[in-house]
Amino acid sequence: MLLICLLTVFQSKANNNEDRLAERLKKHVSVLASDTLEGRGLGTKGKIRAKQYIAEQFANIGLESFSEDYFQQLDLRIGLARVPATNIIGYLRGSDLELADEYIVIGAHYDHLGYDYFDGEMFIFPGADDNASGVAAMIEIAAHFAANPGSHARSLIFIAFDAEESGLLGARRFVENFAYVDTDNISMMFSLDMVGMYEANRGLHLLGMGTLDDGERIAREVAEATNTRLRRLTDEVPGRTDTWPFGQLGIPSVHAFTGTRSPYHQPEDTYDLLDYEGMATVTVFLQSLIRVLSDEPVLKPSDSFERIQDPAGLHLSYGLSAHIGSSYHSYPDEFFRAKNLFAASFGFFVQVNAGNKLALRPEFLYDYHGSQSAEGQYRMHSLTIPFNLIYFMGGSATDGFVKLYPLAGGYFRYNLSGTDGGESLDLGDLHPASEWGINAGIGLQVMRFSVSYTRRWGLTNISPFPETDIYFNGRYFSIGYRF
Question: For the domain that residue 406 is a member of, what is the CATH number?
Fold first, then answer.
């Protein structure tokens, strides 16, 4: 609480400089998002100019380098081509003898989409909000701490990541192959990615703040002291920005983000559209938050984050799902099968993750299904509960926030009502009121969304005639959203 009180005093001083801070932020963005930098795409001369500009700012600020310069050279393979790329890395040594060997990383990717041609005309994707805004804020945060030596107990690393738009490649290479820092000594990571639309999006998101023990409480107290509006604070590491490779190592990681209301990934994402007073508010808030966190006696992952990282740990989530496809009845003792009819179901699911690989997902669905029959159409309204075991596959093809998975399990169905040829079915006597079956399929999880193809096979004989066996079959394309 003492630190929060000190921050209130600090904030009153910072307000006097906020107009000048907004001007400096605008200058950085106008340079990085200018047409002469060609959208900062991989392989462009413009990205080389951006790299040089950021390195010059690091040098002017007085950041130390881990080697003879600020550059970590990356030799990337994109498709069949090898493309050079560069992370730009500087640091400030912490003032506390016991904590100085621990690091807080403040990162922002500086690459963007480059340019393209449409009908013979060149279109540049300047990437002002995505992510010249984050780089500008990072530079000014570095300048603040360099100008206030002794204000941070832990050491601070500032990184302009390359090749984020190509799959977080710069961040991946840093955590995999940066010889000067042991990732075990990184206590916290921030990715500043799209922070230029504070007012338009009505505040700042801190996605992943809950991965740090007590992180959400600290962030809210700092926000109150700095008069900053916070929106979403989550306890999951976002997969769409450079937080992901750090989070995979169990490092609490936060995506500072004002939203996608800017012309995201469009040629219209220009520097004149950004909210620089809002960017200054975000920058001062992050300076204050990093200052408080750098002085915390212990920075450790939250219990919920550790459970996700633990191969045997359990993590509960829930969401909505919808299935659309077709169903039919099979006659195993006959030479024919019935024709398909449209089938659909929707409802909600609960997902229990056991570490990063296994999950159990029961669903609770209203189910509309049926089949062609001798009487015309057999239709049923049911409550169906599939329960599937999911295995998230590893390997380079599915690494990161995209995961391929097979699924298998069973289902229970309770039939509410039905008709055959327009006549109501007598459930419980001639037709079973409940059924059992099995499921199998394959799916793809992309962040919070999942899509899958699933087959259902009934194990309960639903025939009203003793001499005939009839079983349900269904095929579904499904989509799910996990909250």
Answer: 2.40.160.20
